[in-house]
Amino acid sequence: MNQGVLEINDCGLRVFDGADEVLDSPGVAVIEPRQILVGTAALMRARSHPTQANHQFWRRLSLESLKSENARCRHHADLAYCHLQEVADHCDLPAEVALAVPGNFTREQLALLLGIVNESPINAVGLVDAATACIAHSAPRGVHLHIELQRHQTLISRVAVHEQAVLDIAETVADAGLQNFQDAWARVFTDAFIMQCRFDPLHSADAEQQLYDMMPQWVSRAMRQGEVQAELDDRTAKIGLRQLQDACAPILSRVRAMIDNLAESGGVVFVSHRWAEIPGGAQLAERIHLLPHNCVAQSVAKRWQEVHSDSAALRLVNALSAAPANEVAVQVNSAAEAAATHLLYGHRALAAQQPLFVSWKEGRFAVTPTPPNHPAATITNHAGKLALRVDAGTRLMLNGREIAAPVNLSAGDRIGVPDAEEVITAISVEHYGA
Predict the structure, then answer these.
(1) Which of 153, 65, 162 is nearest to 102 (CA)?
(2) Are residues 342 and 352 in contact, defined by beta-carbon separation less than 8 angstroms?
(3) DSSP 201-268
(4) Which uninterrupted H or E stretch holds 295?
(5) Is the pTM higher than 0.85?
(6) pLDDT per residue over 216-265, tens digit each?
């Protein structure tokens, strides 16, 4: 009898057969008078039919009434049932399924979920906290955080690991979900299309749908290559990775603040695979470990007897046996981007507490605290971060790529001009002692 996992996350319901992912279905519905579309089909119509779209039904799972002309859509629970039915129709479900649920579900929501599952084709034999399962499988002894990305929020779970991994607390960061990141990216791409080819992708619902359909590919390409040529309706706009990182920064800063509030000394921040698709997501914390996409399935497979229940009344399991200490090997990555504090040119390093001005004259750079007649760029300090703004008509390169829009500088960034070897390097100067 094959065993598997159904992970409940409105970014995507994921079905695993053993440790193999067989389906990922986004938590989106489009409600029409005679039919309800859910999952991928709904996601591909949600922007072109915004008044019919609902992407809140998992987060707000309840029997609260909804206004709808469709008789099958009385409340959010109906949409959740439709989604589970869609999942069952589009893959071969394992004979026995453990439900991996987020720690921010209330008791009432868990009870409602189990009632819906009982009416579906899914044979649920276990109920486990997803974060606890991931930490139990991956973490050394200590108190650690698990960071999960949901559609409208970020879920941060603190798990203590000794002989068992035990869920301590689960907190959410509102308006810090996948949808919020996508809306921020959409503003970047829209501004680029307007500025570079006088085309507004948001001028019509169909164009907006195309924009959101293409964005994941564009963002992924920018993260690999440093920039991307985005093409829409035979129009092309160039967007740099740093622009996307800057757009994500306000959201990420609020997630980092919650991490700092909940973290304990020596702990590791375990982030779900979804953060690998967010510019800056790998810099959420100083000590970070990116989990594999099937971590929860691997953990449940090894702890099936702890998760499995012979009773029809499933209880939530939020304490699991921890992996043996001698079997845990965690690769901890430090935050990659140190804040720049100085500009290094030749043998001179200039502190950038005050604005600095870069000029290019007679084939040589100059960096001065007083503005020249024709500055090439200005570096300013905003809340401890250096920002580079290129003046109109100037061609400057950052790390080998030409830039036009303002960017934040990190230690190691190199500022130059086309076809010239000289560079100005942003560096971080640390002070030790009293």
Answers:
(1) 153
(2) yes
(3) GGGSHHHHHHHHHHHHHHHHHHHHHSEEEEEETTEEEEEEHHHHHHHHHHHHHHHHHHHHHH--TT--
(4) helix 295-302
(5) no
(6) 999 988 887 888 999 998 999 999 988 999 999 999 999 999 999 999 98
Secondary structure (3-state) at 367: strand
Six token digits for residue 286: 């100083």
Give the 3-state secondary structure of residue 335: coil
31 has pLDDT over 80: yes
What are the backbone dihedrals phi and psi of residue 349, each rounded to the nearest 5 degrees, phi first?
A: -120, 120
CATH code of the domain occupying 342-427: 2.60.200.20
Q: Which has the closest alpha carbon to 162: 300, 320, 322?
A: 322
Query: Rounded to 10 degrees, what is the CA torsion of 346, 352, 357, 361?
Result: 0
Q: Which residues of 108-121 are buried (b: 16+ CB within 10 A; e: fewer)?
A: ebbebbbebbeebe
CA distance 52 to 299: 38
Amino acid at residue number 400? G
Residue whose tokens read 């996601």: 43
| Distance from chain centroid for Cα 407 | 21
Judged against a pLDDT cut of 70, whether residue 336 lies above it is answered with: no
Q: Are strands 3-7 and 13-17 parallel, antiparallel or unpaired?
A: antiparallel
Residue 177 in tokens: 């979900």
Residue type, 252: L
Angle ∠(211,213,214) on CA atoms, nearest 5: 70
Query: What are the boundaries of each domain within the chain?
Result: 3-176+251-327, 342-427
Architecture of domain 3-176+251-327: 2-Layer Sandwich (3.30)
